[in-house]
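Deliverable D5.2: sample structural annotation.
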Amino acid sequence: MNNFEVIFTQEPKEERIAKRMARSGLCSRRDAERWILAKRVMVDGIIIDTPALKVNSKSVIIVDGKAIPEKEEPRLWRYHKPTGQITTTRDVRGRITVFDSLPKDMPRVVSVGRLDYDSEGLLLLTNDGELARQLELPSTAWIRRYRVRVYGRPQTNQLDRLSRGVTIDGIKYGTIDIKLDKQGPSNAWLTIGLREGKNREVRKLMESIELKVMRLIRISFGPFQLGNLEAGKIEEVKPSSLREQLGIFSNKVANFGGEQQRKNPTKKIRNKRKNADHSRNKSRN
């Protein structure tokens, strides 16, 4: 059973406290670990200080004096984030957050990754912190695709170099899909596909070839598309569609987080033919 299937099945008998908190939709697993180390979490009346503690369905878990939410079925939403919103629950500078802009009847959700303050487009939100973690892990190899308008004239040799992967200020950026869509007198539109989500990655890649990003729009995250969703609007992914998309992913990667186990149908056919020929030769002899 892979990690995505576990998310949709019944509650496990035992699991680590940080994972249980994330699965409740209260926070991400990373946040849960920080809260535990800050001694904000109590289990069965005892304040804990390790995220490795295992809990079960009978464990009473209290965070900041309140019981954590009951585990709900995983849900996922597509949100069209406009510019001028920050992807965090609170901002010390008082800027509007993504979560300030959500409908009042929305359950508590966490974001799958982030989008910069000046970036726009598709942001996935979920009520399940563990699902968020699985979706944003680099090992999923899901492509995040962006439409990017830059000031300047990108050169083919520059784009080819970026596509092979580069190192900027000691940080290694992997291979990317990059295509020049339209060149204007002073600016150009590009489509860029990334399999990781490093901080301000697209902007830094463009700056490395002396191009200034004027607009950055995420148009897809794995199989989920921005489509015609208007800026500031949110739409839930149907449960059947969510299961289908995660199931498609599960079939592609048998060992989640490990090497991809791809079947080779051509090799299978060759082996069948080889075995059949061997049987015929044996019967003739």
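Annotation notes: The longest helix spans residues 265-284. Residues 76-238 form a domain with the Pseudouridine synthase fold (CATH 3.30.2350.10).
The annotation will be released with the project's public dataset once the embargo ends.
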